[in-house]
Amino acid sequence: MRPTKYKPEYCEQLVKHMSEGLSFETFSAVIGCHRDTLYEWVKVHKAFSDAKSQASAACQLWFEKAGRQQIIKGKGSSASWIFSMKNRFKWTDRQEVSSPEGQAPITIKISERGKE
Q1: Is residue 15 a contact partner of residue 21, using CB atoms and an 8 Å limit?
Q2: Which of 55, 79, 81, 106 could disulfide-link to 15, CB 3.0 to 4.6 Å?
Q3: Is the backbone of residue 97 left (phi > 0), alpha (psi -120 to 50) or beta?
């Protein structure tokens, strides 16, 4: 087994990196390792796993603040912000609804007022 390049200080660096709206994966470029290595460290080092969770929340906060600024100032592309939120943070405008076990699925039709 090769020696690891993991350093405990990467935890704090990851949180700082992602709190600027940057992705987990691009942290690999910052420290000069393969992105798969980061995912391995998440499995092996609890502190790094915890840092990733904290960093992900900080990243989402950055994006939510950016979106709020777009709304307040009326600048920027709301479509690109929504796209980012849906892809980065699994936002959705769909809700999964399941019927109780053994019952047929329920279909709900929603139409715009005056259009049917």
Answers
A1: no
A2: 55
A3: beta
